[in-house]
Amino acid sequence: MQLDFQGKKALIRVDFNVPLNANNEITDDTRIQAALPTIKHALDNGGAVILMSHLGRPMKKLKEDGSINREKFTLHHIVNHLSQQLGRDVQFCDETVGEKATTMANALEPGQVLVLENTRFNKGEKKGDEAFAEALSQLADLYINDAFGTAHRAHASTTTVAQFFPQGAKSFGFLMEAEIKNANKVLNNPDRPLTAIIGGAKVSDKILLLERLIDFVNNLIIGGGMAYTFFKAQGGQIGNSLVEDDRLELAKELLKKAAAKGVNILLPEDSIVADNFSNEANIDSVNSNSIADGWMGLDIGEKARASFSETILNSQTILWNGPMGVFEMSNFANGTKTIAEMVAKATNQGAFSLVGGGDSVAAVKQMGLANEVSYVSTGGGAMLEFLEGKELPGIKAIKG
Ligand code: AMP
Fold this sequence. Notes:
Elements: E1 9-13, H1 30-44, E2 48-52, H2 70-73, H3 79-86, E3 91-93, H4 99-106, E4 113-116, H5 124-127, H6 130-137, E5 142-145, E6 170-172, H7 174-187, E7 194-198, H8 207-214, E8 219-222, H9 227-233, E9 237-238, H10 248-261, E10 264-266, E11 270-274, E12 283-287, E13 290-291, E14 296-300, H11 302-313, E15 317-321, H12 334-348, E16 352-355, H13 358-366, E17 375-376, H14 380-387, H15 393-399
Parallel strand pairs: 1-2, 1-5, 2-4, 3-4, 5-6, 7-8, 7-15, 8-10, 9-13, 15-16, 16-17
Antiparallel strand pairs: 11-12, 11-14
Helix pairs in contact: 9-10, 11-12
Residues 200-202, 205, 224-225, 242, 297-298, 322-323, 325-326, 328, 357, 359 line the site of adenosine monophosphate (AMP).
């Protein structure tokens, strides 16, 4: 972050979209922790800080009378916790832009922190509205985007606002810098073999990613519910497993393309199957291409765990997105657990590993292995789009 903060006011877009319980208490403050280094840096270098973020989806969950549920979605819920974490007072303005926000911003002294109300209380936020963005920009001298989780959205506070600051007065924060740097380690000249592990429910969500990966990975491990579309595409019997019949042709094409490029595709040879989508169901272990009717594959089997493990341990760069099974149920979590352990072990042996995407991140954290992999991304959708090769609007806005 090459900005001079001395005597300046910095408008920082952070991601404070934290989960809250019924009493509006923060249940996981990872996103707040992730934003602290940038905030502290600005304060320690003589700046004042104005923070803005969205919280939840207030426009999708309006009150019965059509008004915004301010009590539920106010960013005030994070103020006390932030104040504790920073060890200093944090002011709050109950509007995002307007007279009050301007007065409070103007009065800020170096070292002081102001949190603006939820950006999504304003209709212009998601539309990327210029007037709203300009009003935000007038509150400060500098703009910093540190909200990687929303970098794929061309919203007013993540993208449009940047155009009102000249180069030299805008920058990525430390979190954004780290996300970009680590994703680029996988995309640009990675040490090889490079292995991507892709899991989760649907092929359709990850088509672009799979297509792109086939262009440059050495090994592509496909697990989770999406694997069964590939087995069916090859004529396998998959019983009642998850399948997308409208993606069978696409699955076939992906396999063909991979073969032509010399990419080693690993599908789970065997599966843990269940006669019901439940942790209490009867379970069995069978080959993934001969699952009887009435049974569904809910996790990868023992042979698949062994072969995936071997490939992971022989890799120098690893990208993991998506669970290997229905890991939320303990009987179907073993595949995902094994992958997490192996990615950690490979990292320990010198490989670079990037875990990105909500559920694989949750799995790694659940197992206490978040510190044993090289980088855990904070942005699910944003990381996916970055890896797909798309230029994220929030990144482009800063780079120019
Ligand atoms: P995604 O959001 O696409 O990464 O998918 C994550 C979800 O996929 C998790 O909630 C898993 O429970 C689910 N999932 C993974 N494997 C399977 C499977 N074999 N059958 C059904 N759902 C699965």
